[in-house]
Amino acid sequence: LGLLSYLAIFLFFYVEFFKKHSHEQKHSAMERTLMFVLPVGYLVQGAAIFDVLPIYINVFAFFAFAYYFLYSPSGEHNKKQNG
After folding, report:
1. What is the rounded CA–CA span in Å between residue 2 and residue 33?
2. Is 21 within 8 Å of 27 (Cβ atoms)?
3. What dihedral do alpha carbons 12, 17, 22, 24 form, nearest 10°?
């Protein structure tokens, strides 16, 4: 149950990633590539080295950036709200 919950975090990230960015082009190709590859690298690293604090710090920093990457407001949206 714990492993499924843990893997579900990454599953939901990829679902949102493909849902949000399949039609939008507000990020560069390099940014989209890094956002796709970083979780894969983390999962490979986590299979060999786990329960080490720096690994968790990196993954939580990635999740924070991923939230910003997926849900940051665009400039047009802010202009509509302000004026």
Report:
1. 28
2. yes
3. 130
